Structures are given as structure tokens and as C-alpha cells.
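Lab notebook, page 48
Experiment: co-folding of the full assembly
Goal: obtain a model of how the components sit together before planning crosslinking
Operator: M.T.
Materials (sequences as entered):
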Amino acid sequence: MERRPLRLRKGLPMLDKLKQQVYDANMALERAGLVLLTWGNVSGRDPDSGLVAIKPSGVEYEQMTPAQMVVVDMEGKVVEGELKPSSDTPTHLELYRSFPGIGGVAHSHSTVATAWAQAGRSLPCYGTTHADQFRGPVPVTEEMSPEAVGGDYELETGKAIVRAFEDLDPAEIPAVLVAGHGPFTWGKTAAAATENSIVLEHVALIGLLTEGLSPEAQSIAAFLRDKHFFRKHGDGAYYGQSDS
Amino acid sequence: MERRPLRLRKGLPMLDKLKQQVYDANMALERAGLVLLTWGNVSGRDPDSGLVAIKPSGVEYEQMTPAQMVVVDMEGKVVEGELKPSSDTPTHLELYRSFPGIGGVAHSHSTVATAWAQAGRSLPCYGTTHADQFRGPVPVTEEMSPEAVGGDYELETGKAIVRAFEDLDPAEIPAVLVAGHGPFTWGKTAAAATENSIVLEHVALIGLLTEGLSPEAQSIAAFLRDKHFFRKHGDGAYYGQSDS
Amino acid sequence: MERRPLRLRKGLPMLDKLKQQVYDANMALERAGLVLLTWGNVSGRDPDSGLVAIKPSGVEYEQMTPAQMVVVDMEGKVVEGELKPSSDTPTHLELYRSFPGIGGVAHSHSTVATAWAQAGRSLPCYGTTHADQFRGPVPVTEEMSPEAVGGDYELETGKAIVRAFEDLDPAEIPAVLVAGHGPFTWGKTAAAATENSIVLEHVALIGLLTEGLSPEAQSIAAFLRDKHFFRKHGDGAYYGQSDS
Amino acid sequence: MERRPLRLRKGLPMLDKLKQQVYDANMALERAGLVLLTWGNVSGRDPDSGLVAIKPSGVEYEQMTPAQMVVVDMEGKVVEGELKPSSDTPTHLELYRSFPGIGGVAHSHSTVATAWAQAGRSLPCYGTTHADQFRGPVPVTEEMSPEAVGGDYELETGKAIVRAFEDLDPAEIPAVLVAGHGPFTWGKTAAAATENSIVLEHVALIGLLTEGLSPEAQSIAAFLRDKHFFRKHGDGAYYGQSDS
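Observation: model returned without errors.
Model output:
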């Protein structure tokens, strides 16, 4: 008789709420039309335990349940769940380790953001829609070396993302284009990460059309960009209802 | 115990009908696919009282109710409603003040109209579909100055729109592209404003494709443009059923 | 008391079946995404009486009923129905008069076909999808003169279409692009006319993308075009199930 | 009294399961938006008997049933079913004969893949989304000669496809673009063939947009391409859940 490894550490919270949130954020990503087949994944991190819940690898959205979300620790070890976590888990973990304060990561091969990634181009801030969510261009990573691809590929993908943010604030630009691959986004929660993927795809499309209409299109002025970003973010934000 | 400010002036009509119409026009804008997340807003003006009902700021469409529409006076003071009005309210009010006879204003970041706005280009009248609704090019505003953006930004946005209509009739061209930002449209009612947003997005897309097929594409002749515009508008209109 | 004009000639068939077919074809056109607002219309002709049923002008699709279809004779006189017929009725009638054997006409402002019309370009036969339905390029009309537009405009539109087919067989190319305006299609029935509008929009899009991928794209060879056209049309057709 | 030909050989399995799978794969192709009207078809092959079930020719998807799938032998003779098989059946059979190990074939006129076919261009491997499914460019066939088109056209189409794979492995690149016509895909099952059509359409679109954003776009490096392909295929695959 085979013994199943112990998946549930004694005293560990079941993290049911996080798993539900991560499930919801994965389903929202799919509902938004950003996912082809099973090729997308969202994770969320529990701020207390530091554990991360993530979509299982290659499971159909229609059949997926909240209970199937896989919980891993920061070394990628499965601490709860019967299924294999997303193959992109090491990329997610590297972002949690390197970008303090984020609580969710999303990845998809959404059509237009992926086209920018394949073109090897960062996405300019062509308008206020972009600036509402991203305070400047969304950067593209450098191409990965044969050694990085041949090594711990998914971890190296995360490192390439982190390098692209050496001079950028991931809280102000919560998105990246991995060259030749596609977008990753993040946020304070799994839901926020998904929302950033949705906005990224939208502004990637508007940006592409903008260039089609005007090959000499320019980024908007920094003062207009910042006006919009800080209407929605930070202490001076006045968009939406106050939370209290 | 905190005292809530008196929101309902004595003797003021509840404006329930207007709030329902404004709610419906907001939902129609979202259903037409013109709204990203919560980033759109429609208002309507009561011709008797001069009061304006508008979408609350940042509220999810799925959870929104007619009762949540916020009623403001022409100075932007909330006279009915529990929520904050759209942050774009001062822009709407400036249009009501400056464009006599309009009873509805709509704003979105719809994909293709926003691309024209980001490209800083007015939308030429490339065909009869455009001319059915807009009697000539839909103008783009000038870029706003650092002072305007740093001042009363949303009011200044309205003023920039009004300046773009110095030599145009807002009743004949009920739409504008705010440079680097996106479209505003208006009409006799909130529903008409939404309809103009829908048509604008459609002709913005057809116009973009027209240029792709023929970089030398020309606007249609003025006699054909006016034939179509006046088939549907004014005393000689013969499209549709007579209202009586 | 006002007397309503006699709309129903004695002994005239109610044409209920035709009205249902025309209603269905109009709804199919809208369901296919080819119609903006109320801006589309399909008609069908009863081969026995020569009467034509057509969509009423400017009526919302959601509220439309089969009984509202308007029946006109070949001079455009309403012989059955309470509403005004489509303002494009004279165009439809000119096509019935000039193209023998057709029993349905459809008109829309579908996005991509309209872009070709606005670009003033005929649609080349770039592939077998096009050739399955249209045996050669879909022609664009000449631009209409000020006199034609200022005169009986909708009738003149029909005449411009007919002139574009002087050297073409409308049974083999059941579609046209009216310059600066949009597509008209036809067929043996109202349903066939709608189907041709659907195929036209599809091949208009594929054709546009083909040129984007290869500015030197060529029409397919005549022998391949005819192979596909005659797989589906004429005595040698072998696509589909035999009708018997 | 007319005698119906014997359609069911004695002792032959009813192949109900295969017909259901082929029906499902056809419906999935349509649901994915890849099919215009009735212009798509998927087949599946029973590995034991070598018989092939395929969609009947020209039947509406809404009315189609699993029982209507037509079973043919490798010579194209109908061995079960009341309807005519797809007119493209000889193309499917040629692929089964020539590409060992495949169990499903799909064909559609999906918009963007067809545009690449009409442009006469193979689809470069511009990113990892492409490489996840196709290990290299998706080839385009040569144009067919007048003799091939005038002869056994659908069989010759299959032969043209096979010739395009003289130096390629159809198990690693399970897709082709037939010049001037459209895509065919295949896989171990009918469902896999449909999935490859879905991915092909997606990467065809991303590829087209990539070129729009960067006319000098390059294929990704072979080491990155192979990393992604073999993450999902072959003995070293680690994407998804293990089947055991």
C-alpha cells in the first residue's frame, strides 16, 4: 500500500479564504477573455503565514474548484493540495520575494500584451487610461540567455522581471512584458493582479491602434500622467468612494 | 453622534424618473462594450429644475442601482444621494452650461475613439454612417497646459472641450475627443448621449480601417454628408417613424 | 373621427409567410453583429404577386415583430402594414427590377465591408472563402453626383449599383459596395441575402488582414476561384446534401 | 419499393463513441468562433478498425446530432450514415494515410489563419505561445496547379499538404496553411485537432499584431522554442497533471 505524503502541516490554517480569492481571480481572468485554453494563472499570498495559493497546472477552468488551489511555501514546497501547482510557480514566488507589499500575481498570454512582448517592445504611456493604472511605460524584459532557459527556467523568468525593475517602482508599474513570452502583472491582492492584467490588455490594444493612426504618437506629458495616476492611487486619491 | 448633512432640500422633486433614465443610459454604455472596469459615466439633466443626475464614482456596474445615481446642482453640490458623484462631474456640468439644449452627457474610454484621442487626431467624416450622426469631423481638443491639469482639472477639461467648439455647432456634432484622454458625447437625453458614444466608437473603428485600406482616403462630399445628416435630423428628416 | 387609409387590397394574400421570412432574415442580420442600432434592413419578394416585404424604418430590433414588416408594391406603395417602410426601400426595389431572379435584398453598415466602401475600393478575391460565395471581386460603385444625391437619392443609389453590374452577373456576385456608404447583398430569398452579407463581412475582414500581411497579395487564380464557386453553385455543385 | 444500400457491414462496431467524440470536436470548433456558416469540419479515426467518422457536408451546427456523423473507410466509401460526408473528406484521408499516429483532423476558414494562407506566408514562431504547441513555423503549401485543381481536387489538397511536410515532423508541427485557402490541423484525437486549430488562430493573430508593432520582428531563439515545446510534449514534459 502506497503512503501519500503528508500535505497538511499540523496547526497550519486551511487558507480557505485565500484559496477562494485566488480561484475567483483565476476565473475573472478567464472570463475577461485573457486566457487561451488553460494558459493563465493567478496566485495570492497570505500576509500572515507568507504562504501562496496558486492555480493547479493545466486544469480546465470549467472543472476547476476553489479546493483545487495549491498552497505552497516560499520555497515552492506544496503544503496543501492534491494537484501539481502551476508550472510558473517559481516565477510568482520570485516576484513575491522581490517586490515587497504585493499580495497577488497574474500571468496570461493575452493577445495584444503578448504581441508587444513578442515585438520586444515596452508599452509607452500613450494616454490617461494607461496612466490611471501604470505610472509610465510597462517595461519589457531582456531576452533570456541559453543558460537561463536551460537552467531553472521559471525562476530565471522571475529574475529577468526583477532586473527590469531595477530603476522602477513595482507598486507604480505593476506589470511587465516578458520578451518573446507575455505579460505578468501584480497587485495588493489576487483580484488586483487580475485587474491589472485586464487594464494592461486594454491599453496594449489602444496603444497599438494609436500607433496605427499616428506613427509619430508621443507619450502624454508627465504632469498629465501623474495627475491621472494620483487621482486613483496614494493619499491624494479622489476617485471612487472612500473605504470608510 | 454624527449628524449627516441634509441631502434632500425641502420641496425638491425626488427626480426618480431622471435617476432611472441615467441609470439605464449608464448600463447601456457598459452593455455596448464601451466601458473598461468602472471607467465610464453618463449624466442627465432635468430641464425644469436644472439638476443633474450622474453615476457615482467607481461603483461596479453589476451592483449599481438607480437609487445610487447622485443628483447635483449646477455648481456640483450634491442635493440628493449618499455617494460621491463621478470625478468627471465638473466636466459634465461645464458642457451643460455651455451647450444649450443638451440633456445628457456620456464619457468612456472606448477602445478606438480613445486611440484617435491618443493619436491627437480629429476623426474625419469618411462615410455616410458617420454623417448619419455627426455633421462633419469629430474634433480633438488641444492638449491641456500644466496649469490647467494642475488646477481644477475636470472643469478645465470641460473648458477645453468648449473651446474646440468655438466654430462648431454642438447640436450637429455631439461628440469630441479629448486629446490623450478619450471621448465625450452628448445629446438631448442621457440615452441619446449613450447612443452617440456607441456610434462614435463604431465610426472610429470604420475610419481606422478605411485608412488602413486606403492611406489617401478622403472625406465624403459635403452634399452627401448633409443628405445623410438631414435624413435623420431636423425638420426635413424622413428616417424612422413619425413620433405622433 | 379620422379615417385610416385602406391598406389591405381585397383579395390580396396576407403574405404572412413572407413577412415571417423577412423578419427572420432581419433578426439574423442583427444577431450576426452586422447591424449598428437600427441601421440595417432586409427585404424579400413574393414571386407570385411581385410584392415586397421589408423592415419598417428605424424600429428597434428587440421590439420588432413579424407583423410589423411592411408590404409594398414595385412602385413603393404600401399595400399592407401600419408603419413606414425602410427609407432604403427604393434601393431595394431598383435591385428587384434590374436583377432578375433575386428574391431578397439586405443592407447593413457592417464594419469591414463599410470600410472597403469608404476606401472606395472593390474587394479582391483573395481566397477560396471569397470564391465559395462570390465569383470574382465585389465591385464598388462610382461616387454619386450632387444631382443624384439631391434627387431621388435612394432610387439613384439603386441605379448606381445596377450600373456597377453592367459587365457582371449579379447571380454570381450577389454583393456590392456603395462608395462612401456600405454594402448591399442579395440572393434567391431574404435568408440568402442575409447569408451573403455575413460572408461578405467575413471575407472583407480576411481580405483586409491579407493585405496587412502581404501588401503585394494577389487574387487567386481563376481556375481555383471557379473550382470553389462551382463546388457550391450550379448544376455541378457537390457541396452539401442534395435537396431531394 | 426502393432498396437502400446496406450501410452497416455485419460485425462492424457502431463506432458510437467515435461519432460522439467527432461531434463534440466539431461543436467545439464552432463554439470557438472558428467556423463561418457550415464551413468547417473535424474527423476522427478509430485506431482499431481504421475507420474515420466525419461531419456531414453542409449541415447546420444547431441541428447536427452525433448520429449524423458519417463513417467512411480509408477509400472514402461510406460504411455508416445516411448523409454525404464532408466534401473535404479526401483531404482528411490523405492526412491519415501519410501522417502516422494521428487520430483527428480539423479544417476551418478561421479569420486570421486564413489571412496568412491567403497571403501565401508561413507563420513564423514569434513567441512561446506558438512554441507551446508548434515546434517551428507553420508552413504554407505551394499553390496548386490547374491540373491538380481540375482533377481530384480534395485529394490533391491533401497531397499538397503532405509535400509541405517532406522535411518536417507532423507530430511536432500539427498544422498547415493551404495557400489561398485556409488551415488544416491534426492531433492524436479529434479533440486535439480542434485544440490545435484554436491555438493556431490565436498565434496567427498575435503574430500578425507582432509584425504590426515591429516590422523587423524575429522568431524566438531555438533554445527558447524547444524549452517551451518540450515543457508540454514528450517524455520530459512537466506541464499539467500526470495522467496516472
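Interpretation: Chain B has a mean pLDDT of 93.
Next step: discuss with group before ordering constructs.
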